[in-house]
Write a structure and sequence with these properties.
- Helices cover 69% and strands 0% of the residues.
- The chain is mainly α.
Length: 84
């Protein structure tokens, strides 16, 4: 089993963090991370970013815009006042 390169870690770090990486991939990633400080920092930053994004609230719509979009959806159009 070949060792992972930093590029491989960058491509698979998301799967590791999301718990989607298989056992062999996880082990290869962890082996690389044990020896590579830059990749450890990269994965730590990715985890921190993911935590921040999970805690971020979605942007609020202007109540009038929201009402217009709901009305458009009920009419079966894409935009307020639009046609099919």
């Amino acid at each position: 089993m070949p060792l992972m390169r930093c590029r491989d870690v960058a491509e698979r770090a998301g799967a590791l963090i999301d718990g989607e990486a298989g056992f062999a991939t996880r082990m290869r990633l962890r082996l690389h991370l044990a020896a590579c400080a830059p990749c450890r920092r990269f994965v730590a930053q990715l985890r921190a970013t993911q935590r921040l994004l999970r805690g971020a609230a979605p942007p609020a719509l202007d109540p009038e815009r929201e009402e217009a979009l709901v009305a458009a959806a009920l009419r079966g159009t894409d935009e307020p006042g639009g046609r099919i």
